[in-house]
Amino acid sequence: MKKLIAFLALALAPVLPAQKFEGLAPTPPMGWNSWNTFQGKISETLIKEMADALISSGMQAAGYRYLVVDDGWEAPERDSQGNLVPDPARFPSGMKALGDYLHSRGFKFGIHNCAGTKTCAGLPGGRGHEFQDARSYASWGVDFLKYDWCNHGTADSQETYNTMRDAIRAAGRPIVFSLCEWGDTKPWTWAKDTGHLWRTTGDIMDCYDCQGAYSLGWKFILESQAGLEQYAGPDHWNDPDMLEVGNPGLTLAESRAHFTLWSLLAAPLMAGNDARKMSEDTRQILTNREVIAINQDPLGKQGYRFMKHPGKQIWAKELAHGEWAVCFFNDGDAPVQLRIDWANLTFLKGTYRIRDIWQKKDLGQTTAGFEAPVASHDVVLVRLRPTS
Ligand code: GLA
């Protein structure tokens, strides 16, 4: 009888589809990525120096723990068995040794490749090698895979990324799977069971409102995020691309506003500056614990745009325990005087204590109005806590 039950249980068991590793990104992943500042000019020495700088600057302690080596780490060809190999001149110790170093310094190890035949930099892509590559990543101790979309030909995005997800699963090492498909086929509508985060746009550029052939300043990227909030949550995040905070094309106000808005968007916070040389102002922005706490709030809700008028946008993010983060963003070219009547913020219920996050000041309660100057491209960020 027991045997019969066991047989029936097996025969009737549903065929389970392969799955991503669950629970790896309960809050948006935080880390540092080499692309925005260094593009292909990377080496194991640079990555190790960056790891050390992230520690000495306090960034690691503030939560930046994935150190992601983007495009440019590979040799131009696979080996005779078809395995990926690191560039022998720039990564002479190999990726396992680099992973070991990063782990010994308390980081998680991230790496980049591409779902197409070649990466955007023309190095070997993963197409047709997914299971073999996933085994390599697992053997190197990789914890995070950013998977790009150059040279994909006529491939179907969902099928392609699901193949890599299944390959990661089969290799057996839990790896955060970061889809970098640029939003082309609206991954927010299909990738929840595929990966932990997905890019929603083309590449970010080191500027506020400039535009290149494939890249955009953060103002345009922000604009395209309004409305996507319903698709994000724990373990499945919209990714409006990495941070340009501290890079030369942004003013201090633009860096502060970019960091604030990405935090409200529950975006992955992947720093992209040279952490070895950052100014104290940049360090203060990137390590502001109260802003990071809004991004990492355990409720895991992406913020949304509540209002947009010329020169004034209001973005709001619901937080755990009935709290709210509210950002007033001056997207215009002239300073504005912000005047808030809290009763107009219709998502609020009752009275709240106000904390001005960038001023690091408590400002009383929402029973009185609020006024503050906001410089061009700058923000005011408040956290509201219910009084009862
Ligand atoms: C694409 C991605 C970037 C970066 C480069 C590397 O453009 O969107 O984030 O990874 O490829 O070549």
Descriptive account of the structure:
The protein is an alpha/beta fold and 388 residues long. Helix content is 26%, strand content 22%. The protein is built from eleven helices and 18 strands. The strands form four sheets. Strands 9-6-5-4-3-2-1-10 form an eight-stranded parallel sheet. Strands 11-12-13-18-15-16 form a six-stranded antiparallel sheet, with helices on one face. Strand 2, helix 5 and strand 3 form a beta-alpha-beta unit. The protein is globular and about 70 Å long. Alpha-D-galactopyranose binds next to loops.
Tell me briefly what this model is:
The chain has 388 residues and is of the alpha/beta class.
Task: Give structural attributes.
388 residues; globular; alpha/beta; single chain
Topology (SSEs and partners):
Layout: H1 2-12, E1 30-33, H2 35-38, H3 44-56, H4 59-62, E2 66-69, H5 95-104, E3 108-114, H6 130-140, E4 144-148, H7 157-171, E5 176-179, E6 197-199, E7 203-204, E8 215-216, H8 218-223, E9 237-239, H9 252-264, E10 269-271, H10 280-286, H11 289-295, E11 304-309, E12 312-318, E13 324-329, E14 336-340, E15 352-356, E16 361-365, E17 370-374, E18 379-386
Parallel strand pairs: 1-2, 1-10, 2-3, 3-4, 4-5, 5-6, 6-9, 7-8
Antiparallel strand pairs: 11-12, 12-13, 13-18, 14-17, 15-16, 15-18
Helix pairs in contact: 6-7, 9-10, 9-11
This protein binds alpha-D-galactopyranose.
